[in-house]
Amino acid sequence: MPLDGPLGRTAFLFSAGAAPLRETGRELLQACPVFAEALDDICARLDPYLELPLKCVMFADEGTRTAALLDRESYSGPAVFALQVAQYRLLRSWGIRPDVVFGQAAGRMAAAYAAGVFSPAEACHAVGTLARLLDGRPAPGPGSCLDGVLDAYGRTLATLHPGAPRLPLVTDVTARPVGAETAEPEFWVRRAPVRLAESVGLLHRAGVRTWLELGPGDRLVRLLPDCLPEGTAAAFALSRDWAALRSGPGADSGTTAPR
Questions:
Q1: S-S: 103 plus which of 108, 139, 187, 189, CB 3.0-4.6 Å?
Q2: How distant, in Å, are the alpha carbons of 72, 83, 119, 214 from that of 78?
Q3: Which distant-in-sequence residues (6+ apart) come within 8 Å of 140 by Cβ?
Q4: What are the backbone dihedrals phi and psi of residue 240, each rounded to the nearest 5 degrees, phi first?
Q5: Per-residue model confidence as pLDDT tens digits over 149-170
Q6: What is the separation of C-alpha 99 from the centre of its chain, rounded to a whole number of angstroms?
Q7: CA 147 → CA 30, 127, 143, 203, distances in Å?
Q8: What pTM was estimated for this model as a whole?
């Protein structure tokens, strides 16, 4: 892959994340109608799978029982997915597009959506189904319980119709561009060691010099220096520096969220 411009190519990093930082979401809700519209859309698609509306949980007052639900996988996963998709749509409305996307663990589904593998409806069905399955699992449960969850999740994935990635898609499972295996349910339920350093090395050799993490924080971006070749200079765009991103080259205000 050739270099594109003085900063090279751009990778969007979709991390597994943790419970979303409420400050991040509130800031964007107040300042960016495109983000608010996108978040409402994704939350509405996920709500049928959850006991409480996702947006209410994401922005519940600190210290309340509702806010504590974000510590449960059944809410934290959908919340991070919704946040990442809304951020992605916001960036696209500003004319900021990736050359390649990377998905880590639970972030693989948002990365796959961004790459065009799944439609919003199918991605939300997958994320919501997994949340419902996890909510019904004993906590803590034996390994066989998790195996049962993954088996049931795989059966749901088998009903979807994923397409070939329209953008180069790399995951921490393969540490290489993903192709036809996106159509295999086993690919999405596979448990494997995280191969972040290999994936970052691959992207760097492919010309990536700008790294933008989507999600509640910048954990992956902070790990990059340990994964890049020694002495490598990289341009970092942090996920929470929204004002700088909006005023960057090619950015415009945008009034609608791309689907």
A1: 108
A2: 10, 9, 16, 14
A3: none
A4: -95, 0
A5: 888 999 999 999 999 999 999 9
A6: 16
A7: 41, 17, 6, 32
A8: 0.87
- Tokens, residue 36: 């608010």
- In DSSP terms, which residues pair with 177 in a beta bridge? 170
For the segment 107-148, what is each residue's pLDDT rounded down to a tens digit? 899 999 999 999 999 999 999 999 999 887 574 454 457 778
Three-state secondary-structure class, residue 179: coil
Residue 194 to residues 174, 206, 258, Cα–Cα distance (Å): 9, 20, 31
Confidence of residue 30 (pLDDT cuts 50, 70, 90): confident
Instruction: Name the one residue in this structure whose structure tokens are 């020694």.
Output: 230
Token pair 């991040």 in the structure block, residue: 24
Report the 10 Å Cβ neighbour count for 189: 18
N-terminal to C-terminal alpha carbon distance within the chain: 27
CA distances from 108 to 20, 114, 119, 176 (A): 17, 10, 14, 13
* pLDDT: which is higher, 11 or 19: 11
Identify whether the C-beta of residue 113 lies closer than 8 Å to the C-beta of residue 45.
Answer: no
Residue found by looking up tokens 């919340």 in the block: 79
Token pair for 77: 């996963």
Report H helices in the chain: 22-31, 33-46, 54-58, 65-68, 73-93, 107-114, 120-135, 143-157, 185-189, 196-205, 219-227, 242-246
Distance CA 171, CA 198 (A): 10
For the chain, domains (ranges, CATH) are: 9-246 (3.40.366.10)
Residue with tokens 């994936």: 199
